[in-house]
Amino acid sequence: VFGVCKAKATWSLETYLDEESKTIETRVKSEPVLLLISGGVDSTVTGAFLLRCLNPEQVHLLYIDTGLMRKAENEEVMLNLSRLGARHLETVDAESRFLEALKGVLDPEQKRRIIGDMFIRVQEEAVQRLGIPNAFLAQGTLYTDLIESGKGIGDKAQVIKSHHNVRSPLIEKKRAEGRVIEPLDKLYKDEVRALGRALGLPEEIVGRHPFPGPGLGVRILGEVTKEKCDILREADSIYIEELRKRGLHEQIWQAFCVLLPVRSVGVMGDERVYRYVVALRAVRSEDGMTAQPFAFEMKDLFEISACITNQVPQIGRVVYDISSKPPATIEWE
């Protein structure tokens, strides 16, 4: 690139921050901005970015409890968001609405569209209630989200999977109207983490494992129900806690459990049981575009499997996903 194309290494996070701040200030002027914030790395960095480049009175953070979050996620999210210094932080309990909308839905693309559209419906109700009906919508969209949703640079991009914040019809409508702000849409995950550090966010926030916007909705294969969410929450919590205890969590780029749409026969005492199967996923990556499965010691996998099946009675079998990206994606849906 530097030798043949004569390109120069002039890009830096500081330059990006300055240029993107000026762009947002010019577009927004004094109008309000509403950020749908999940508490994950991307939306939290977006929140910190907006609070730095705009008057904090303009910035409204909206956290929607979808019922598709990890165990104790709501409490952790609110604690992290309180550190940003936002003047306006709103929460909405929409669990029943999301689960009802997902009832009977099996197709992963349809689930993503439903979740994305429900986010916008809840957001539109919130801005009316808050008295900011014409607010800009801000999102923590990354360039990887655009690529996988077929919205990357060029006209030959294929849809790998529709990210709820990119290809939802209601999102696309708002984007076409010029009412969507996405300050991270030119960055990859490693650059977002670096930007978060430059903005002064603590390591426990910028170093969090990625979590998809649709949440457990795309980690439960097939129909999503409250029972399945509760089962997966428990298994995932045990898995992550075991990784921390063993000093493995920081070595892994992303780790999570997937609840499979099958049950398998097992034995409990002298009785036959028929229970769910959960898959463990753990990968190493730099930017999420490629990934390799984490090379566990077998002893760790044996013990983690036993912890899950002993503590979550609905789960009878644990498997480990050894697929790389490509050909697989990191998430299963």
Structure overview:
The protein is an alpha/beta fold. The chain has 11 helices and 9 strands. It has helices at 13-28, 41-53, 73-82, 95-102, 108-130, 143-148, 169-176, 189-198, 203-206, 226-245, 298-311, and strands at residues 33-36, 59-65, 88-93, 136-138, 180-181, 254-268, 271-284, 292-293, 315-320. The strands form 2 sheets. Strands 3-2-1-4-5 form a 5-stranded parallel beta sheet, sandwiched between helices. Strands 6, 7, 8 and 9 form a 4-stranded mixed beta sheet that branches. Strand 1, helix 2 and strand 2 (59-65) form a beta-alpha-beta unit. Helix 1 packs across helix 2 (41-53), helix 2 (41-53) packs across helix 8 (189-198) and helix 4 (95-102) packs antiparallel against helix 5 (108-130). It is globular, with a radius of gyration of 21 Å.
Largest sheet descriptor: 5 strands, parallel
Q: Determine the number of helices (DSSP H or I, runs of at least 4 residues).
A: 11
Global outline: globular
The structural domain count equals 2
Question: If you compute it from the alpha carbons, what radius of gyration comes out, rounded to the nearest whole angstrom?
Answer: 21 Å
